[in-house]
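Help! Submission page says 'invalid entity' but I think these are all valid:
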Amino acid sequence: MSSSLTHSGPPKARHVRWLSLASALCTSTLAAHVHAQDADAEPPAAAAPEQPAAPEQPAAPEQPAAPEQPAAPEQPAAPEQPASTTTESEAAPPEMDDEEELEFSATAEVTAPPREPTKHTVDQEILTRVPGTRGDALRAIEIMPGVSRTPYASSDQAPMLRGSSGDESLVLLDGAQVPLIYHFGGLTSFFNSNLLERVDLYPGNYSARYGRAAGGLVEARVRDPRTDHFHVKVELSAIDSQALVESPLGKNTSIALAARRSNIDFFFKALVPEDAFSVLAAPVYWDYQAIVVHRFNERHKLRALVYGSSDSLSLQFSDSAPEDPALRGAAEAKMAFHRAQLESINKFSEKVEHNAVLSVGPYYGKQNIGGISNEFDYWDVNLRSEWSVFAHERVRLDAGADLQFLLGNGRYVGPAPQQTEGVPGNDPLAGEKYVTVDQQDVVSIRPAAYAEASIRPVDPWLIVPGVRVDYMADGRKWTVDPRLTSRLNVTETTTLKAGAGLYSQPPVYYQLMDEIGNPDLTPFRTLQTSMGVEENIFKPLSIGVEGFYKHWYQRVTGTEGGVDPHFENAGTGRAYGLETLLKLQLSQKSQLFLAYTLARSERNDGNGEFRLFDADQTHNLQFTGSYDLGKGWIVGARFRYVTGNPMTPVTGSVYDATTDTYRALYGATNSERNPAFHQLDLRVEKLWQLGPVGLTTYLEVMNVYNHKNIEGTMYSYDFSKSEGAQGMPIFPNLGFIVEY
Amino acid sequence: MFKPLNYQAQPLCRVKSRSRALLAPLLLLALPACGDPMEFGQDLDNPRVLGVQVESDDGHSWPAAGQAARVQLLLAGSDGPLQARAAYQVCFALETSSGVPLCGETTLADGITESAAIPEFAFTGEDQGDDEPRLAILGVACASGTPQLSDDPQDWSCSDDSAPLRFSFEATSKSLDNENPSLDETSVLLVDEPIAFQPPEEPASCDDAPEVTVGTTVVLDFTLDEAARSSSTDELLQISHFADQGRLERQFTIIDPDEELHFQLEFEAPDTAGPVKSYFVVRDDRGGTSWQSFSLCVVD
């Protein structure tokens, strides 16, 4: 399973005074904020759907903060009023009778200005429309700098950030870590993107409130269900079918239900090569989500979230694989999990707030192929509690604790796990030495505590020192991670930012097991530093440039030949680079992002020599744009150019007479590269509004000019010949959406 | 608990990695890549080592301490049996969980074979103690030039820079009680006509060989005797098939312990007439190896 679980309440600024002091940081405005006048006034009609506000909003200093309320009721209702990093207040002032004094109240939900040096937000309007991402929110963050391109069909579960591997990234859903992020290792994420408000990306130097990840942080925020009226949305595409319903339940409660199922199994058999497999169970995935939000009053809110996911596949090979006699028989994979999550958001006073999140659920996974089997099940509990105190008009204190608890069983038969990054994996299964690991009632407890202060010694300057303490009970190890960030508004449009800190991560569970790992392993950590500038050139156009350096200490590496103790903290690493992001936001649906990252990521496996990281990508250029043509037409394009990933060349082979297979001989690790990757994806959609019903048709074409991107190398049985393994060919995806 | 193994992207149909290709996305998304491999392992296009057999004086697949054993190599290419000399080293291997085995400090035997006709050599077994060490034979065969071994397999070479045929063979303590599969009573039929076996070192010949018409596909019917499995335990048998002309249906046939010792294999005759040499090598999963060969005659 993933190596860390942590929680966080959403970062929200609730103290208006604080917002006023931070107003120089803001790049967008509140959407209507009117203070309450008369409690006896007729409650405003909830004409507009929930308006989660933009993260950086200047508020009227004299007005009290009430961030968790629906937006001003006089705003014109629209089918979708998603959040955006830029939100304009478009409410018309209420018509007033000269003899009548209308009194009404409303508050806007405000997200705090970033306290981290770098926070990229992809809002709801973009999440499901980025060409080439199949409408997947977690893939959409790849348009941002600092995010490495994930190779086609890679099983890296989490995004790779600033030269870190995917397992060093923390991916949270409303503050809770999820067991699996993608269906079938990358096809689409497990959570319906239409239910997400935004995805926040912190490529590095994230807050002390989070931990157990040596890389960066991705947090997906679930939006509240709409409160205006009943909504339903049905979407059909070549990949999957999904439905979403949401509705208010009374005055203070709203609910959303969603479900999705893949369509792959309907045409899978047509793709299967003749005589290659018997399909016992075609690949199927499904997922579901249920959200209930209840607002007790302006100060207290409860969110309940239940979701789950399942992937399954079963095949029977008619013969063994051509080059590997051990790859035969049945191939089966099943992974499923369910989660119940409860979040409490409380504002006890103008100066004291509390958030708590509890997430509980089971996970089951099973994988078999040939003689390898891997079956495990567990329950995990994640609990987080955080207090925020506005101790002074210039000081805010956040302190909290989070707990990760796991109880589970597992059985594994197969090759001994070993270091995967930096180790080519071309050898056949046949002849591998198998181990059997059977673990019952394994308990893992990992508590943590943190404290962070947001200090503004002078108005333009924000300093955020923090510290986090983690304990790893299964290894009896403590870590202390101090962190510091700073943001200085040198002008109204220019911000200088910097950050430094330590980020510890425990080893993966199996690396600590006696039979196949090393119980004496310690957590490894990174020292992360960054420095940059943000410039709002003019209102819709902004640019940010940031340099970073990251160093790994005590990185877990495999021993030579995988011999006892199997793993050791012998490695180091370094990554450095420059990130640039140009954003042009003409409107909610017309936006342009140009992101460029120049970077280098290297590892040292304990032998004193640095070599390239498996996913080192020197140049990563992303151009993403969408434009509202009017009359319901929206077009989008995405172009990517990325340096090819390093590869380790095969220089020869040795015939294994025991198994009648060949084992490769390798040159220097990652001493060569695949050709550069480049691809153009296009998307066009058309909305027909038929009264209250909207009908949208979209066509997304991935790899429009069918470039043969090489994702790896395939070899003949004796490694005497090779050819590139091609990535995704041109792939059209036609979809239909009906929405009420 | 168990993090899903970190898989690398390799199309399943050309997988050379371990179970990494299992995860459904690789299978699902790489299906278009399935098709003919770059080369067919059952084709003898180039000189190759096809098998290594160890047989002790008392008929086991690895000698006990003080016992002598003979090692034979099976070499072949597109022109039939291959004559080559081999440099070899028999040793206790370093403990590794994967990759090419490397010799540790204890060497049981090393040298260069004298005869190029039938590369074989002998060594004497040693006490393995209680640690169940890995036992390995490492070597390189050269059709021309003198074979040379070194510590780094990359440097195993032929003195005249011709293509080296590097090989390794491993055994464990299980091999001490194991016998090589017996193929004395194995039969191969072509349309109910038994095919006579011939020594592997003899070239292909149409003399007494069954005839197959050019360009046609025929079915070879294999039946192994129970003696192919050791009597003491049920064994999985892996049979490898090779032909120096035409194409056999597959390289591997796997017979599980509970399966009958019978299978069929298609042979697609070449487009030109002439003799074809075919080999099959039977391996149990405890280091035992045996082989046989026969000829087919392709006619117009």
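Support: the input was valid. A stray whitespace character was the problem, and the output above is from the cleaned input. The helical segments of chain B are 24-30.
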